[in-house]
Specification:
Layout: E1 2-4, E2 10-13, H1 23-29, H2 31-37, E3 61-62, E4 73-74, H3 84-110, H4 122-139, E5 153-154, E6 160-162, H5 189-203
Parallel strand pairs: 3-4
Antiparallel strand pairs: 1-2, 5-6
């Protein structure tokens, strides 16, 4: 479990959870999750992000449907027959989540220990992951480690225009595997209001010209 920055670096990691648990459950029970829930992460205070809305919005984690919506975690709106505004929010959230996939892919491609399941003790495995994450973050400052072609490039509707070179070096079965389980759809009214306010921002001052194309799909 990890939090990733926009430049493909790992900000926080929680290592050692069992793979049979859902992503949302692992996060909730992790030290990171506890600290977020208890307000101990020392995040910047909520900020006003545009002139159209005077109520400040908090800094949040971008997540998928495996996580629970709350005041610090944004997940997509559920369902199929959504309004245009909700489809735009889900699209913008999905674009942001691609950074996470690429961060894991880049690390797995550059460190060959991840090319196959690790046949080591749990303690050794955790040490390997810790070491490679530190090295990955350090090497991300070097141009040859991840140049412009190594990460995915996507078009306006979130389809990959050019596959990142890391995809050619990551096997289907390796040490890093995706595991997704739908999280609970229950959320607080406060969390739902925060998501709605982000949605309004994406429809006003936070709009980008290519987002409207998604409504034609």
């Amino acid at each position: 479990m990890a939090l990733v920055s926009a430049d493909y670096k790992f900000l926080m990691v929680d290592i050692g959870a069992q793979g049979r648990h859902s992503d949302g459950g692992i996060f909730k029970n992790s030290e990171i999750g506890h600290r977020f829930n208890e307000g101990l992460m020392n995040l910047p205070p909520p900020s006003i992000i545009d002139s159209a809305h005077t109520q400040p919005l908090p800094f949040v984690i971008v997540a998928d449907e495996a996580f629970q919506l709350n005041s610090f975690t944004m997940r997509p709106y559920p369902g199929r027959n959504m309004t245009a505004e909700r489809r735009i929010f889900n699209y913008r959230l999905s674009r942001a989540r691609r950074v996470v996939e690429n961060a894991f892919g880049i690390m797995a491609a550059r460190w060959r220990i991840y090319q196959k399941p690790m046949n080591t003790s749990l303690a050794t495995t955790e040490g390997i992951v810790q070491a490679t994450i530190c090295l990955h973050n350090f090497m991300m400052t070097r141009d040859h480690y991840c140049d412009d072609s190594f990460a995915d490039r996507v078009n306006y509707n979130n389809n990959i225009v050019a596959n990142g070179a890391w995809r050619e070096n990551v096997p289907v079965i390796g040490a890093i595997q995706n595991y997704r389980d739908a999280g609970l759809n229950k959320c607080s009214r406060q969390a739902a209001e925060i998501r709605d306010r982000f949605t309004k921002h994406f429809m006003t001052e936070g709009t980008v010209p290519w987002q409207w194309e998604i409504l034609q799909k």
